[in-house]
Amino acid sequence: MGSLSLQLPSPLQELRDDRVGRRGLRLYLKRDDLIHPELTGNKWRKLRYNLEAAEERGQPRLLTFGGAYSNHIAATAAAGDLFGFETVGVIRGEAHEPLNDVLAFAASRGMRLTYLDRGTYRRKTDADVLGGLRDQFGDFYLLPEGGSNALAVRGCAELPAEIDVEFDAICCACGTGGTLAGIAHGLREGQKALGFAALKGGDFLVEDVARLQREAFSAVSSNWMVRTEFHFGGFAKRRGELDAFIDDFEARHGLRLDWVYVAKMMFGVFELIERGAFARGETIVAVVTGADQSFMS
């Protein structure tokens, strides 16, 4: 696979914030959003070993699934453009013109877009649906929705070893659970991982994270949990309270948080700090798994 200029390890920045300091805590940001301008955040970690596997199999075409605002769709399109793969994005729901910023970005990087009605999309991994896609586009290397599979989890497991400060807890946003599954596996004894579900009804993520750990490592660790109360109405939904938090965070720290995933996680971190969920003297790392989506426009 061709070379690419990546900022790895991604930077670690201490966040100076009085809400943290008065609780006797330290909080660091793991800036995975700075890894690459188009393969931002956890997307490179999830894609890396999958791209290598596709190349080893001599497969020139990647096909994956996602909603109309999926960062994974955009990242797969960018990866295909950068590494010479054809890409196909199977989008949930009906086609709408003009394309939104995410899908316009994917198309600009050469991705062919196709659409499945929501009923068919729920069966997207069934043999007849995949067979129809192969008839339409030819053979392909299949990347799951959100990019989370055993290879993706192994890529995410490399993140904790990059952190050169002692820490007690690490936090990340959760969409499909792959990042949390990998990070938790990469922790040392005594450290814990907290995943913050970005979608409503995220209790299913507990089983999904466990399944991904079994597939990747043949074992499930006990050092992680999923917080489900900070979804702000559901996936890609927001409320005024979240918008106010994003504006305040930017004013304090000069960083505009991605509202779909990262802002919900950071809101949850500060809420748990306020509730006293972390012991005085603990160090927390929050993973910035993606940039504000305006980077695509």
Molecular structure report:
There is one protein chain. Strand 8, helix 9 and strand 9 form a beta-alpha-beta unit. The chain has a 6-stranded mixed sheet with strand order 1-2-10-7-8-9. A 4-stranded parallel sheet has the order 5-4-3-6. By secondary structure, it is of the alpha/beta class. The protein folds into 2 domains: 178 residues, Rossmann fold, CATH 3.40.50; 106 residues, Rossmann fold (3-Layer(aba) Sandwich). It has 11 helices and 10 strands. Helices cover 37% and strands 17% of the residues. The two termini are 28 Å apart. Helix 7 crosses helix 8.
What is the typical, i.e. mean, pLDDT?
95
| CATH architectural type of the largest domain | 3-Layer(aba) Sandwich
Distance between the termini: 28 Å
CATH class of the largest domain: Alpha Beta
What general outline do the C-alpha atoms trace?
globular
Order of helices and strands, N to C? EHEHEHEHEHHEHEHEHEHHE
| Radius of gyration (Å) | 19 Å
Low-confidence sequence ranges: none
Going by helix content, strand content and strand pairing, the class is alpha/beta
Number of helices: 11
Name the helicity range: 25-40%
Number of domains: 2
Largest sheet: 6 strands, mixed
Strand order in the sheet with the most strands: 1-2-10-7-8-9
DSSP summary, beta strand count:
10
DSSP strand content = 15-25%
CATH fold-level assignment of the largest domain: Rossmann fold
